[in-house]
Amino acid sequence: THFGFETISESMKASKVAGVFSSVASNYDAMNDFMSLGIHRLWKDHFVRSLNPGVQYASLQEQQEGQRILDIAGGSGDIAIRMLDHATNINRDNKTHVIVSDINPDMLAEGRKRLSTTSYQADGRVDYLEANAEDLSAVKSSSIDLYTVAFGIRNFTHKDKALEEAFRVLKPGGVFACLEFAPQLSNPLFNAVYKRWSFSAIPLIGQIVAADRDSYQYLVESIERFPSQPEFAQMIKDAGFLIPGQKPDGTSIEGGWEDLSMGIAAIHKGVKP
Ligand code: SAM
């Protein structure tokens, strides 16, 4: 690959990824817009709506405590704000709480800055945790109702470890939900056009807009290396999750994921039994 990841140690890979996100933290919105042709905002809206955060038909205890959401790789604050907006405005829930967790302090600082413009921070409905998704020892087992990760997991060195940790921290009945770019579009013609766009234009735009070709090149390559939708669904199952639409014999009805924009991105979900 561009950074020669195959030949350097795994720990170096993690620090390289951290460097990429430190360098893009301040112009993060522009980067996401280029990577997704601006559609990431709609995907995030759809992702959050599909999870319907906030307590609706709750026991008294749940009503008192609200939902506990852990947003992993959530440094931009984008998902946390949407979750809390949805819980508050749609479900009239003022208790649901989000822990925004990220490996990168610069990204967390960006999220904190954004969330400080809302009332959620002052209301104590958000906390921040600097942590590697592969080691969430700061989070108690079976303590989380909803684990989200948006555009983060493809950067993790050991995705299986991150899935194991997601399984551990979720309560039984808790939901794992992932929004991520996918390596192949469903239509081969669109796939060819999109690949051309992403491999040639995105690094160039990164160079022009952010004077940072390498980071953007890395991001394009990380999408290419990410498992296909069926492969990733299998990894989620291997971690112990049931996937929505799964029959009792373990075979899947719907595949367990939802393609967005012809498969440029996909949502995967799993439930801890
Ligand atoms: N979820 C946010 C969103 O959708 O706007 C941010 C996505 S950003 C493309 C990817 C994030 O993953 C960065 O903030 C980066 O620091 C974080 N990240 C990368 N490797 C990580 C790891 N091993 N553990 C936790 N976070 C990680």
From TrEMBL:
Gene Ontology biological process terms from the UniProt entry: methylation
Catalytic activity field: a 2-methoxy-6-(all-trans-polyprenyl)benzene-1,4-diol + S-adenosyl-L-methionine = a 5-methoxy-2-methyl-3-(all-trans-polyprenyl)benzene-1,4-diol + S-adenosyl-L-homocysteine + H(+)
CDD domains to which the protein is assigned, alphabetical: AdoMet_MTases
Signal peptide, first to last residue: none
Location(s), subcellular: Mitochondrion inner membrane
Chief location category: mitochondrion
Gene3D superfamilies hit by this protein: Vaccinia Virus protein VP39
Membrane topology: Peripheral membrane protein
One cellular component term from this protein's GO annotations in UniProt: extrinsic component of mitochondrial inner membrane
Enzyme Commission number: 2.1.1.201
Top-level taxon of the source organism: Eukaryota
Pathway membership, UniProt: Cofactor biosynthesis; ubiquinone biosynthesis
Sites where the protein binds S-adenosyl-L-methionine: S76, D102, N132, A133
InterPro entries per the UniProt record, alphabetical: SAM-dependent_MTases_sf, UbiE/COQ5_MeTrFase, UbiE/COQ5_MeTrFase_CS
SUPFAM superfamilies in UniProt: S-adenosyl-L-methionine-dependent methyltransferases
Alphabetical list of HAMAP family matching this protein: MenG_UbiE_methyltr
Assembly with partners or alone: Component of a multi-subunit COQ enzyme complex, composed of at least COQ3, COQ4, COQ5, COQ6, COQ7 and COQ9.
Name of the molecule in the record: 2-methoxy-6-polyprenyl-1,4-benzoquinol methylase, mitochondrial
